[in-house]
Amino acid sequence: MSLEIRPEFWKNHQLSELIQAEWEALCDGCGLCCLVKLEDDESHEIAYTKVSCKLLDCKTAQCSDYPNRLNYVPDCIQLSPEKLAQIHWLPSSCAYRRVNEGKNLPSWHYLITGSKM
């Protein structure tokens, strides 16, 4: 049974209340989760490198084998509502971070515009 995502679910529900399809729909596909990140020991600033996970398709910024990614990349980032508070490196434009902080999605997000283009 396939469940439909609810209209404006990110405004009306806590992240912990989302069904899997809604959770996945929040991702804008920026690919930053799939890049190696470096954290400065003193300032704690995050630098995104140009080194990516072996499964990242750099042309589409999508995982080339998302359903099986943990079989190939055991330390793949698995975002969840419970882990968001501990993952401080998400960019300020990240829909997961924004919704978790009580902010709206960015105006360019495809759930707002209706287009992934």
From TrEMBL:
Pfam family for this entry, one: CxxCxxCC
InterPro entries, sorted: Puta_zinc/iron-chelating_dom, UCP006173
NCBIfam families registered for this protein in UniProt: PRK05170.1-5 (NF003501), PRK05170.2-5 (NF003507)
PANTHER family: UPF0260 PROTEIN YCGN
The protein's name in its UniProt record: YcgN family cysteine cluster protein
Organism: Acinetobacter bereziniae (Acinetobacter genomosp. 10)
